[in-house]
Amino acid sequence: TNFINALNFTNKIGEIAESEQHHPNISLTWGLVEITIYTHLMDGLTRSDFILAAKINQIPLPLK
């Protein structure tokens, strides 16, 4: 992948996060997207975190 593919993938994550009103920490570099999902108010993971992760996992990965 390259930067544009990683950015497009990140934007798809952002769309899902907005629809869920649950926003992960996202780190974007050339060809790499790192996502951290955590509920700060609960100081851990919640059901919403797992729902968001499952929806993000449904995004097709960009072709290399």
Q: Helices and strands in order, then pairings?
A:
Elements: H1 3-20, E1 25-29, E2 32-36, H2 47-57
Antiparallel strand pairs: 1-2
Helix pairs in contact: 1-2
For the secondary structure, the number of strands is: 2
Average of the residue pLDDT scores: 91
The helix-and-strand class reads alpha+beta
What percent strand? 15-25%
Share of helical residues: 40-55%
For the sheet with most strands, the description reads: 2 strands, antiparallel
Radius of gyration: 12 Å
The main sheet orders its strands as: 1-2
Low-confidence stretches: none
Number of helices: 2
Q: What coarse outline follows from CA principal-axis ratios?
A: elongated
Q: SSE order in H/E notation?
A: HEEH
- N-end to C-end Cα span: 4 Å
